[in-house]
């Protein structure tokens, strides 16, 4: 098996990112196209294939020099068949993505859930480099997760493994979650949850606060505001950041007792808080894991940002497509 | 690879169980010897080997007809080397178990933690038959666990994966655990924890109760008493059983969101409570998992009892020793 090229594709609701990455992990090119969701997303596979073919021509790459395509899509996917059961933002329902992509490009393809693909990207070339047992957490609008054991994503029996945003962390009196339950991790440690807790704290507290000044100026606050103010020592913001970190540390403690990872990679918008997040997080993670589990595990901020998906896709092509 | 014999060995602090099981899962013989822990357990490997050799002679089995030995030991084990770092009840410290066993028997051996081995036994011939993604929980003096993904035990980076008895389920005001933390699952859902909660309930409650009658007669109660009385409708006992099931369901909900198993197997003494345990457990498991996770997963009581270990050992020999 000589060195070949791998294509990573990361499908989003508005743009589709792509990259051409060699076996050594060097990015030859990366680019993006608009995701055309009209007609229930029926043009997407052809658009992506056209763009890939153009790019391969530009680099004079024949199909024998390309291993294949690793593509991530939002929604629920059956990896074995490459079938997308439902991807609401895209318009797909029961869509044979792998088959379509292979037909249009003539290249073998492998399909994965986008959050898992980003986790694989961080493992290959990002914060998880060199590790084979990882928990990846994305703290954005929601809380996503990817569990990697011995270098492979854990999918579980119905593809639900790693949906850690829905671990209950506030069993009594928790806030409602989009999933229909209450008190999920997502309700307290996502950007949405942190904003809500910040607003609550302003409501139930009269103390002077630079977070309150921001709220009065802008009519709203964001999770970023909370962490920025916390970093400046604002007590009210520190308390909110601590609470978000407490619940995240609690959940990661439990998950780590289950899988005993060597690394936890924190990504998503909230991860930009850096040490303002990871310092209290590490404290609570230590409290809720076990000494041998804590000692074996390092918490790091994700490094690849928006490229994690395409890198993970290329890794899937490199490792899962045998040609 | 033709049909061969497999030897399972399950080392306990007082007796060592052994079994001769063929590739089809048929138990040809099972027996036990006393575990001789004097001289820091230095006679154990020779004793076991002697007993195995005698048994193979009895059945006229040459070494070419035997695949090897799968042995479970308590304590912390490095599976790759078959090295036992520490097994307090046995007296071993930094003991090369695999090497000794192979030297004395002339057969290849594979070593595993005893709780994990029991989980593999239930997967092969017990309640987990046919499943490849399982959570096994042993509710005894403590709470043990084994996580199986794609047919293999998850060990984690420092061999701590599956130590689910130490997931925190009472984050504030929990009882002290042997591990040094507070509020671990083991403090509320083990036989020890259920007895303690039963005694507390009797202390803080004046109501008539057949559990109280038992306590006054015997001067103590057991977890078994609590479930027996609960099965008879004793309100105080029902409340304690519900509490144990609530915390177990809470932990299993979280673990199942992480690994999305097809089966949860409950073993150990407390599992004899049957539906008095599993009915409330299922209710809380549903509350704390996700619909797609819950729907894909069945909760069953372990079937192999004390034989789970030797069966798991034979399975390890059958599947991990290539000869």
Structural account:
The structure is a homodimer of 323-residue chains. The first copy, chain A, is α/β, with parallel strands linked by helices and 323 residues long. Chain A folds into two domains: 5-122 and 307-320, ATPase, nucleotide binding domain (Nucleotidyltransferase, domain 5, 2-Layer Sandwich); 129-303, ATPase, nucleotide binding domain (Nucleotidyltransferase, domain 5, 2-Layer Sandwich), CATH 3.30.420.40. Chain A is 41% helix and 22% strand. In chain A, a hairpin with a 3-residue loop joins β9 and β10 (143-149). In chain A, α4 (114-125) packs across α12 (308-320). The longest helix of chain A is centred in the C-terminal third of the chain and has 25 residues, at 235-259. The first copy, chain A, is globular, with a radius of gyration of 21 Å. Chain A starts with a strand and ends with a helix. Chain A binds chain B through residues 133, 147, 149, 154-164, 166-168, 171, 179-181, 250-251, 253-255, 257-262, 287-288, 290-293, 295-297, and chain B through 133, 147, 149, 154-164, 166-168, 171, 179-181, 250-251, 253-255, 257-262, 287-288, 290-293, 295-297.
């Amino acid at each position: 098996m000589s060195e070949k090229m791998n294509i990573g594709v990361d499908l989003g609701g508005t743009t589709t990112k792509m990259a051409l990455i060699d076996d050594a992990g060097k990015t030859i090119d990366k680019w993006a196209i608009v995701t055309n969701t009209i007609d229930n997303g029926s043009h997407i596979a052809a658009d992506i294939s056209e763009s890939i073919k153009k790019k391969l021509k530009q680099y004079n790459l024949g199909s024998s020099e390309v291993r294949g395509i690793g593509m991530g899509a939002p929604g629920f996917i059956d990896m074995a068949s490459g079938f997308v059961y439902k991807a609401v933002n895209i318009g797909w329902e029961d869509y044979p993505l792998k088959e379509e992509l292979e037909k249009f490009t003539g290249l073998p393809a492998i399909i994965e859930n986008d959050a898992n693909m980003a986790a694989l990207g961080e493992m290959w070339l990002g914060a998880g480099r060199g590790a084979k047992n990882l928990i990846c957490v994305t703290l954005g609008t929601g809380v996503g997760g990817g569990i990697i054991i011995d270098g492979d994503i854990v999918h579980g029996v119905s593809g639900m493994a790693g949906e850690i945003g829905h671990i209950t962390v506030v069993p009594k009196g928790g806030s409602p979650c989009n999933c229909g339950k209450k008190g999920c991790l997502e309700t307290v440690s996502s950007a949405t949850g942190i904003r809500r807790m910040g607003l609550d704290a302003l409501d139930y507290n009269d103390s002077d606060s630079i977070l309150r000044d921001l709220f009065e100026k802008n009519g709203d606050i964001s999770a970023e505001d909370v962490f920025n103010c916390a970093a400046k020592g604002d007590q009210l913001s520190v308390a909110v950041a601590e609470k978000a970190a407490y619940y995240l540390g609690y959940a990661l403690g439990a998950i780590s007792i289950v899988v005993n990872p060597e690394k936890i990679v924190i990504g998503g918008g909230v991860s930009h808080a850096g040490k303002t997040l990871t310092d209290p997080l590490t404290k609570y993670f230590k409290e809720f894991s076990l000494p041998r589990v804590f000692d074996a595990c390092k918490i790091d901020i994700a490094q690849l940002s928006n490229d994690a998906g395409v890198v993970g896709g290329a890794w899937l092509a490199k490792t899962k497509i045998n040609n």
